[in-house]
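Sequence and fold
=================
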Amino acid sequence: MPLLDKINTDLKAAMRAKEELRLLVLRTLLSSINYAEIAKQKKLDDGGIIEVIGKEIKQRRESIEAYDKGNRQDLSAKEKAEMAILQEYMPAQMSRDEITAIVERVIAEVGPKGPGDKGKVMQKLMPQVKVKADGNEVNSIVTDLLGKL
C-alpha cells in the first residue's frame, strides 16, 4: 500500500476512534505533503513523502528542545507524542554502528585530508543515509572520524 494511502486510511480510522491528537498530526502531515507537491508541481512518491515526514519530525525535535529549555514540560510532552505518531511512517532508523560503517567506507572512497574536507564527505554520504539516519548523528560521526585523520 502506498504511504499516502496508508496515511489517509489512518486518518479515517482516527476520525472514527475520535483520536484528537492523531487526527491533528495526520491532517497537518497531509497539508505539508500537499504544500510540497504544489512547490514541486508534481505528485510525491513514497520517498518524497518520507522526506516531508522527516522535516516534520525535525521541527518537533527542535520544538522539544526549546520547550525543555523553557521548562514547559506540558508542551514538550505534546510534541513528543506528535513525533511518535510521525515516526510510525518512517523507515527503520540505522544504528550508530551501521552509520559508522558507511561513513568509514565513504571516507575511504573520498580520501579526505582532514576535517576541512567534511563537505566532500557529507556530499557523498547524505544521499546514502538521508531518511534512514538522523543528520545530527551522522554529522557527529563524520566530525569524530575526520578529527582522527
